[in-house]
Structure formats: C-alpha cells, structure tokens
Description:
- By secondary structure, the chain is of the alpha/beta class.
- It has helices at about 15-35, 60-70, 90-100, 115-120, 135-150, 170-180, 210-215, 235-245, 250, 275, 285-300, and strands at about 45-50, 75, 105-110, 125-130, 160, 185-190, 205, 220, 260.
- The chain folds into two domains: about 15-135 and about 290-310, Aspartate/ornithine carbamoyltransferase (Rossmann fold, 3-Layer(aba) Sandwich); about 135-285, Aspartate/ornithine carbamoyltransferase (Rossmann fold, 3-Layer(aba) Sandwich), CATH 3.40.50.1370.
- It contains eleven helices and nine strands.
- The strands form two sheets. Strands 7-6-5-8-9 form a five-stranded parallel beta sheet. Strands 2-1-3-4 form a four-stranded parallel beta sheet, with helices on both faces.
- α1 crosses α11.
- It is globular and about 55 Å long.
- The site of phosphoric acid mono(formamide)ester has 9 residues, from α2.
- Phosphoric acid mono(formamide)ester (CP) binds near residues 58, 59, 139, 264 and 265.
Amino acid sequence: xxxxxxxxxxxEELSRAEIGQLLATAGAFRRxxxxxxxxxxxLRGKTIVNLFLEPSTRTRLSFEMAAKFLSxxxxxxxxxxxxxxKGETLRDTAQNIQALSxxxxVLRHSASGSPLYLSRxxxxxxxxxxxxxxxxxxxxxxxxxxxxxKLGDLQGRKIVILGDILFSRxxxxxxxxxxxxxxxxTIVGPSTLVPHWFESLGVQVSHNLRSxxxxxxxxxxxxxxxxxxxxxxxxxxxxxxxxxxxxxxxAEWIKPDAIIMHPGPIKRGVEIDSALADSPRSVIxxxxxxxxxxxxxxxxxxSGGQPEHVTTPLE
Length: 315
Ligand code: CP
C-alpha cells in the first residue's frame, strides 16, 4: 500500500496499517543509526524548518538530527528573536517560511489544532511536534516503536499510563496508537487528572495505583504539565508523589520484566524515583534514540518517500 499522507497531524486519523508503515520505515532508519556513517541521501536538496513556539529539547533536537541524517538542510526557528515577538501571526510566520522555500514545516505550538490549521493554509507538508494538550504523534510512534522492540507484538499487552493524563498530548496520542494496535491500556492517577470520560477512548480508568500496576507489561510515566494547568489539581507535589510517584517499593508491584518509560523531561523525585529512572528496567534513553528513527520516517514519508523504497536505495 503506498503512503498517501502529506501531513502528519494526529495519530487519531491514522489507520493501523499507516501506523505499521511508519514503524516499518522507522525500523529501516533505526538500523542506519547503528552505522559508523549515519547519513543517507533520501532528502538531499530539501529544507526542513523546525517552527517551535514552545520549549523542547528532545523533539526539536531529534527532528534536527533526523533531517541531517537524511541529508536535508534544517533550520530551527528562534522564536525569541523572531518577529512573532512583534505580534506576527502563526499563519503569516508560516507562509513567510514557505515563501523562503522551505519544503517541510515541523510545528510545536501551545494551541491544540494549530498544525491542522497550518496544513490548510500552506502548500507544503506540516508535521505536528506537539500541539497543546491535543496530540504528539511522533512521541507516540517512538513509544510504540520502543515497546515493539522490547515486547514484540502489542496485541493483548497491558500498558499503564500513570500521571497527568488530562493535560497530556503524549497520553492522547499513545492511547490512539496503542488501542489501534490491540493493546489493553489503563490510565491511572488522581481523579482530577484522570477523569472517567477517557473511557470513551477505549481505555480502563483507575485511581488505585497498586491494582493498576498489577500485570502491567509497560508503565509509562508522565510529568505534571503545570504549564497547561490554570489551577492546582492536587494539594501539593509532595502529596502527589506520596500517592502516585513510582518508587522502588512500588516497582515491586510490577512484573519483573516490565519496562518503565517516560517521554521526558523527567522530574526526578516527583513522578519517578531517580534510581528507578536509571535502572535497567528503564528504557527512557532508548526512547530518545528511537525518536530520531521515527522522525526520519515521518520526514521521509511526508516528503513523498515510500516505505518499500527504504531498505535498498538508501543503503
Ligand atoms: N518528550 C518531549 O516532547 O520532550 P521535549 O519537550 O523536550 O521535546
């Protein structure tokens, strides 16, 4: 089946087959990352612009690395010194970047739906690098890629997502990806951050950490997204940690071979005990490496590449 999407905006709109194509393409690019010379000529002559209007370390740098490994030119927009500070709109900013001959825009923005909006006013591909509390599709793809690497087929596997689900674009994208792939997803945390209406997305909702962690194959921890919360959703961080932080004692409740994931940035000592984040059960840094391969796949496919061409012509 040929890849037909120009934009990567959400996981919700992707079919299971399209997720499979992205993961297979990422798999081919992941092998390139283990080589001495990581560069392939797939996007030579293309220019990628990272338009990040919210802070980022992993996503912005891995899109930069991905573009460079594909031989594209990459420019990271510096929001602080740009004319957005003079009031230029997102639409005008993006249309000017397009007029400057960019071939792809990678957008991170605090407003949910902003990548969809840009995709309607631009002629070039738009890739969502995180929009408000809505979606973070490449994060979910790298998470699923890492789970596949560690566990194989996700059908019937129990994946627990623990923390601030309400304000998390990572949680939403993962819920869409994992349910499409047949995993059993449980979300757990305080009732103010894990409301029952999430059940409409096909997940189990729990407010009891011990029972939620039982039989989990994966525990994915999420940071409290203070930047999106207008008011406090629990009395204090200390109280959150005492009830829902993952520490060594609570890790005993998980299966011995279960993996611990976190999209980053980690707040050590809040949602996860520092020693646990660095333990052999943690795959947090493997997620980061896999993020490059997934973003190479997203850039390549949205630029007109086809999954079946990845293995040979790029070698
Ligand atoms: N996981 C993630 O999106 O991290 P950054 O905000 O650092 O990009």
